[in-house]
Amino acid sequence: MSKRDKNLEADVLNWIYACLGEKVPSGEFEDILRDGVVLCNLINKLAPGSVKKIQSKGTNFQLMENIQRFQAAVKAYGLPQEEIFQTADLFERRNIAQVALSLFALGRITQKHPEWTGPTLGPKMADKNERTFTEEQLRASEGQVNLQMGYNKGASQAGHGGFGNTRHM
C-alpha cells in the first residue's frame, strides 16, 4: 500500500475545483471523487464533449462506469496508460495515492494543450529541443578523445588478480 500525501490530495482537489469554477466541498478526497461525476465534469471542462453520459445516481456498477468513461477520456486526452489509476483504486479505495498521482499527471498534461487556458498543476513540462549539426561540425569532433568513453591516462585493471581472490598485502 503506497503512502498517501494529504498535501498532494488537497492540491489536486483545489486544481479540480478551480478548473470547474466551483468551491471545494468539505469531506475526504476519495468520498468527493468516488462516484466519478466530478471527474467526468473535469474532463468535459478540459476537453468538451469527452464524456457524453454522466450517471449522478444509480447502482455501484453505473457509478463505476463514470470512472471508466473518465479513464477512457483522459487516455484520449494524452495521459499515458501507465499513469491512469484503476477503477477499483478509487471506487473500492484500494489505492487512493495512485488516484491522486494520476490526477496530478492530468493537471500536468494540460500544459501540452494550448486550447486549455485554465489552471495547470505541477512543474512546467519540458519542450522538445531538437538539434541539427552540419557534417562539418560532426567531423570536427572525430579527432578528439572522448572522456566519456572511459579514457583515464592508461589506468587499467591489469594485475588485479580477478574475482574472488584475496588481496595480498
Summarize this structure briefly.
Thin filament-associated protein that is implicated in the regulation and modulation of smooth muscle contraction. It is capable of binding to actin, calmodulin and tropomyosin. The interaction of calponin with actin inhibits the actomyosin Mg-ATPase activity. The chain is 43% helix and 0% strand.
Account of the 3D structure:
43% of the residues lie in helices and 0% in strands. It is mainly α and 169 residues long.
Give me the secondary-structure category: mainly alpha
Q: How much helicity do the residues have?
A: 40-55%
What is the ordering of alpha helices and beta strands? HHHHHHH
Q: Which whole number gives the mean pLDDT?
A: 86
- Strand fraction equals under 5%
Count the DSSP helices: 7
Straight-line N-to-C gap: 50 Å
Shape: elongated
Number of strands: 0
Largest sheet: none
Q: What are the segments in which pLDDT stays under 50 over at least 5 consecutive residues?
A: none
* Rg, nearest Å: 25 Å
Family: Belongs to the calponin family.
Domain Calponin-homology (CH): 6-110
Function: Thin filament-associated protein that is implicated in the regulation and modulation of smooth muscle contraction. It is capable of binding to actin, calmodulin and tropomyosin. The interaction of calponin with actin inhibits the actomyosin Mg-ATPase activity.
Protein name: Calponin
